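Reviewers of the previous submission asked for a worked example of the structure-prediction workflow described in the proposal, so we include one complete record here. The input consisted solely of the amino acid sequence. No template or homolog information was supplied to the procedure at any stage.
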Amino acid sequence: MARSGKQGLRLLAALAVAAAFGLGSTAPAQADAPVSSVRAQEWWFSFMHVPDQIWPVSTGKGITIAEIDSGVEADHPDLAGQILPGQNFSGLSGGADTDADGHGTAVASLMVGTGKGLNGQGMYGLAPGARVLPLRVAPTGGNEAVLSQSFASQMSVAIRAAADSDAQIINISMAQIENEANVHSAVDYALAKGKLIVAGVGNDAATGNPVQYPAAFPGVVGVGETDKNGNVASESEHGSEVVLTAPGSDMYQACTGPSGYCIGSGTSASTAIVSASAALVWSVHPGWTADQVIRVLIDTANSGGKPGVQDPFFGYGLVRPRVALASPGDPGPADVSPLLPAAASQLPAAKASAQPSAGASAGARPVAAGQGGSGGGGTLWAAVGGGAAVLVLGGGAAVVVRRRRWGRSGPPTAPASDPYAHLPR
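From that input alone, the workflow returned the following structure tokens.
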């Protein structure tokens, strides 16, 4: 059943009240339980064959990833020297190198962390040779409508700034349900400028699986989450927006908490892994376009024996940068996106035909409940009584809004097993 009117805002940008970072519901690593080696806890390193098969070929050198998020703590030991001067669109004090809640710092560490902390045993990212351009956003507002407009306004400006920068890749581990025209226009602008936009598909598979943006916009690389066994995480949303999947469960990362390190799960982390994968490939093939880079990542993903088939849970498969580097194959034409035709033709009819109702914001459209999947990282929703939720923003402001009810017979179910799990990573 499709709902009309303004949809409940789901800004997937940070953990709730605590100052630690959590991509989903996982608790942060605490300072009173220190880990002597964060590197030793990064299970996905061996899963993806990072040290032995990826880094000897590429570390992402020469590539810049524009990160639209809560800012980045640039002086974190594992990020020192990795963060370029950025821009602050949040209206909050401090620059883009200030991170009030730690989400942006965590995402950056998964992409470009150097492991210099903890005496060389700190947080390593997948592409430590790349650099991050932080573009800070932190939406505020006293009610849903104002909050949604604030998010869309900041997001659209940040995307355009990223498009006008030297960054090749735009990482967006944030999202909202509203399909805002100004954000869509900014995405189209960035795509026209040759940028590769990567966004999380969201962590609400079990609570309605709502369509979220910008991951659901045509041309954007929507990313889902897998766990330690290569299975799709139960929280990871599904639908035609899922282009690739990547590790995202139980991920250690740098953060702004007391210990400097946290652990969390969600599509924010998976998005960072795909952005870093693109950086690895683009570094080796600097003459390629965004269309060619994403085509190779799609073609070399673990497709479960079904190449070219876009599964609603796995997308085109589990990203494998080691294969993309070793055997990239034909990158195809430089000016033809492998995403735009599929996005235009595969959107469910309920999504494609829904129209805004009276009172909906410009560019918003009703969402068919339970259809598709999209954007973001750690949820900002902390459960409270009465079906409400407290939304805590980076600046400390909190508003109480109603938790949305999605018209469906039950929560979506993930596949019983991962058809890709038995295949080489």
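The radius of gyration is 19 Å. We consider this example representative of the routine output the project will generate in years two and three.
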